Amino acid sequence: MIARPQQSSPRVFPAIDSSLYAQPSPSEEESQRQSVQHLLISLSHCNLTKAQLFFARNLRPKEHLARFLIQHRLAFEAELAAKWQRADFYWQQVQNQLKSLVKQDSLWQALAKEIKHDYPESESLKDLVLLRQRLVEELLIDTHCGFFNGLNQADTTERGDKSNVQKATFCDRSFAHISFIEALLPHSSLENEAWLSLLASPWQQQINHARANKTWRDAIRVCRHRLKFFPNSVPYQTELADVQAEEVLAGLQNGILQKHYLANANHLAQGIGKFEILAKTYPHNLVIYDYLGNLHYLHAVQLGNSQQVAEGLVAVEKALVYAPYLKKALDTRNSLIQVMNQTQAQVKQMLAALRRQPNTRLNAQGQKLNAQAKKGFKLRDKYLKSKQPAIVQEAIKLAQAMQVWNKLAGLPAYPTNQQALALYEGLSSILQQPPPDKSSIPDEWQKVSQTKHELAELPAEPICNFLIESLWKKQNPTPTITPPPLPNAPIILQPTVAKPQPSQEPFLPWLFSGRHLRLKAEMAVAITALLTAGGLGLYEFSVRTSRARAYERILTAEQRNQPLAIMDEAEIFLARTPLSGRDAREDQVKNLYTKTFVNWFLQQPELTEDSNVEHYAKRYQQLIED
């Protein structure tokens, strides 16, 4: 169960339950007429035009709020009906409209003024900042908290299911509401501590759920997402490392053939690369270095088993740089050194035998052994002589110093590297040569702090207490903890149906929304192409039909010796050309047209100005040239 932390001031918007947007009876409506409940319901059922609803055109301030509440009501109703795809569309519309509205202070001022005029008793809604924050917290965040609790609490027994599939479906759906809450928190008045109290449990539940199902990528995604909000949380960093290590180990094969060892070695090399990125991202987390040491050890074992002993020697040295206390790595190093010595001795004997038998050669296995013997300890020595071991050791020392710094209450939250290292070295010097009694600790610390200017301004009391507790194992007194204010009673909103219902995004609201713009552009291009193709098809059909009819009439007129009819129909035939190519009848029509025109022209009397001869002559010239 999650709930928004309790606030000292009374609630402004009505309590969230399944009847939030239900229309009241006439008697209830009369009693609520001057209440926020009446304002909420009346605006959420406001009759806006399609242009106002889709494009927010020509809206008064209260109509902007009405448009916003209509989207919230539609999402609320779809969620209750378990129509999740439809609900997601409207939830996202609410988020998008909120982002736009919060930037318009003038709109909120005008809205607060209108509410003051229409609802004079609603004093708490007259302040624009308070109105905006309470809308986000008490209406939006509380709604998503309620659906998270209700969906998360859905029980398969109550819903008559015979398996846990349905429960998992409702549980997975509950996590979607956490994403909506995360997007709303920046618009609220809640501080980071309140964010953590609200989101910590759902995040952990998602991670546990993914780890239980061995869906490592989902678990890693949530761990990384959580660290975006709280990047300095060492427990969150550590859990990311734990999950990533589980993913690497889960990918190892159990076979005993050389191909299995090679596959495992390659898989571990990839896992080590991921942890090296983690170490660069969170350089002050010691657990990550411990994992790197263990992974390099496993890598060395797999390389040794796959007869890559020279590479295994490098891997085991890296393991001991990261984790010098790792006894199994020390044993593996000794074993690999012994195997390499044996390999070099065996290869020496083989090469001597080859020299005594000139016509013989090494087989594939012998060539591999010879290659390993040539590498010998060169790769290991090259690594040990490089700067890399010293760089890793310095990074681990700094991480240890930061860990000690964070243990001491009362010190600055974010020390420099030099401050942390100076404190670590100063404490180490005292712990290695402790004074005879507790009373000497302050003097000893004063001597140390005077030698390092980074320590001069640090408070001595927490440092001396830490030294006393470390040297004389002083038990920490039971701390007195002031409990935080109790959260509001958890809101529970459950779907009114037993199973998720098929649904889809509403077409017209989706079409005029700002979502999936690329898809809409592709649809527009496809529709344009379809309409163009359809128009061209209709044109082609019309031309073919017109020509076919004209051709039939030409043949009929030829049989009846009607020259004017032949020329008129020939003009119709030749006036429009098909898009699909040349018509096979066209040459026949042109020849007949030419023959008929010439014979008819020669038979005509002297031309007059109003004669049809000129008309037919011009049409003939134009069509034949085309």
Characteristic key phrases:
626 residues, Serine Threonine Protein Phosphatase 5, Tetratricopeptide repeat, 4 domains, 26 helices
Q: Compute the gyration radius: what is it?
A: 42 Å
Helix count, per DSSP?
26
Strand content range: under 5%
Measured distance between first and last alpha carbons: 82 Å
Mean pLDDT over all positions: 84
Q: Structural class of the secondary structure composition?
A: mainly alpha
Number of strands: 0
Largest sheet, if any? none
How many domains comprise the coordinates? 4
Order of SSEs: HHHHHHHHHHHHHHHHHHHHHHHHHH
- Share of helix, binned: 55-70%
Shape: flat
Write the layout of secondary structure elements.
Blueprint: H1 26-31, H2 36-44, H3 50-55, H4 61-80, H5 84-101, H6 105-118, H7 128-153, H8 165-184, H9 192-212, H10 216-229, H11 234-250, H12 258-281, H13 286-305, H14 309-322, H15 327-356, H16 364-375, H17 378-385, H18 388-407, H19 417-432, H20 441-451, H21 460-472, H22 507-511, H23 517-559, H24 563-575, H25 586-602, H26 612-625
Helix pairs in contact: 2-4, 4-5, 5-8, 6-7, 7-8, 8-9, 9-10, 10-11, 11-12, 12-13, 13-14, 13-15, 14-15, 14-17, 15-16, 18-19, 19-20, 20-21, 23-24, 24-25, 24-26, 25-26
Architecture overview:
Helix content is 69%, strand content 0%. The protein has 626 residues and is mostly helical. Residues 155-160 have low confidence and may be disordered. Helix 14 (309-322) runs antiparallel to helix 15, helix 14 (309-322) packs parallel to helix 17 (378-385) and helix 25 (586-602) runs antiparallel to helix 26 (612-625). The chain contains 26 helices and no strands. The longest helix has 43 residues, at 517-559. The chain folds into 4 domains: 1-189 and 494-506, no CATH class; 232-407, Serine Threonine Protein Phosphatase 5, Tetratricopeptide repeat, CATH 1.25.40; 409-485, no CATH class; 517-625, no CATH class.
